[in-house]
Amino acid sequence: MAHEEEAETIASLLEIMHEHDLDRIKARVGDAVYELVRREAGAQIVAPVAAVPHAPAAAAPAGAASAGGAPANVKRVTAPLTGVFYRSSSPDAEPFVSEGTRVEAGDVVCILEAMKLFNEIQSDYAGTVMRIIPENGELVSQGEELLWIAP
Question: Which of 24, 45, 83, 95 qualifies as a FRET site for 132, CA 20 to 30 Å off?
Fold first, then answer.
């Protein structure tokens, strides 16, 4: 899938940037040109980002995480951007949510790291977390399902 390849390319470039402490990297892969720029230290703040409502099931990509068959009443929290999924604010902190946790609309459910910015992802829904799809530290793509919440 082209989208997965693009996410892998971006992840590889981010890894190279971190490894070599680069402020900027530009690479051509096939016909695509990727340019990643590290932001100023003052710009590295945690900014809340609301979760994007999930598209109707008919528009879901083949092989999406919902292939296991979520109940019809389940609301899906999806990634508003491509980044690395984290269940907690730091490795030694408790996860924001676990399966079975009750959440309210606006509650932070995870963090997505993109370009050294940690974006808090909030639930648009109130309910109980039924499933957490990505593994901690996994790269997720924009629009990919993160959580299932049942009312």
Answer: 45
Instruction: Note the pLDDT of residue 5.
Output: 78
Per-residue pLDDT of 55-78, as tens digits, reads 433 333 333 334 456 677 899 999
What is the Cβ-side half-sphere exposure of residue 82, based on CA atoms within 13 angstroms?
A: 11
All structural domains of the chain with their residue ranges: 1-38, 42-150
Q: Which two tokens stand for residue 27?
A: 């690479």
Q: What is the DSSP secondary-structure string of the chain?
A: -HHHHHHHHHHHHHHHHHHTT-SEEEEEETTEEEEEEPPPGGG---EEEEPEEPPPGGGSPTT-GGGGT--TT-EEEE-SS-EEEESSSSTTSPPS--TT-EE-TT-EEEEEEETTEEEEEE-SS-EEEEEE-SPTT-EE-TT-EEEEEE-
At the top level of CATH, the class of 42-150 is mainly beta
